[in-house]
Amino acid sequence: MSLDGDQMKQTEKSHDLLVLEDRPWLIGGFIWLMSIGALYAVLTGGTDGLAETLLVTFLGLGGSAVAWWYFPSQTFEFRRTAGLMTRTIRRLGSTRVETLAFSDFSRAANQGHFNDSGTRMDRVVLLTDNGPYPLEFGFVGASRDPLVASINAWLEA
Predict the structure, then answer these.
(1) C-alpha dihedral over 141, 89, 132, 86, to 10 degrees?
(2) Rounded Cα–Cα distance for residues 53 and 55 (Å)
(3) Is residue 4 over pLDDT 50?
(4) Distance between CA atoms of residues 45 and 92, nearest Å
(5) How far apart are the first and last CA of the chain?
(6) DSSP string covering 4-16, please?
(7) Side by side, which strands form the sheet with 84-91?
(8) pLDDT tens for residues 135-153?
(9) How far apart are CA 142 and CA 157, in angstroms?
(10) CA proximity to 69, closest of 112, 35, 40, 120
């Protein structure tokens, strides 16, 4: 669900620390902007009639919900000495931190599915005994292989 400029990136790599960042500012910002524009149109009387007002209100609120849920800013810190991966998820009005011990996952992998048009979509996951732990909220059409290989190479070093 991100554009090329919004892909998850490795921002720091040393023997003891691997940092990945996912900042979907382009598409997330676009959805926020369009949602705010829709709500502004409703509040300033820029809609004509009840049906149009309800539709534009729904688009504004729905778009805001999609942007808030699917396009947070995320940071992943893999710390070798602590044996932990820490995920910080920042959304408008909230920050959530999750930790996962290295012993709880075996490696990173691509999780894929095919969309309605038959195009393969992927996202990066960590493989755990309880199933995949996704590092991305949505699936993207761009290859995740280099990122998965980088995570696994760091874990194996």
Answers:
(1) 120
(2) 5
(3) no
(4) 27
(5) 31
(6) GGGS-EEEEE-SS
(7) 9-13, 17-22, 73-79, 84-91, 94-101
(8) 988 788 888 899 999 999 9
(9) 26
(10) 35
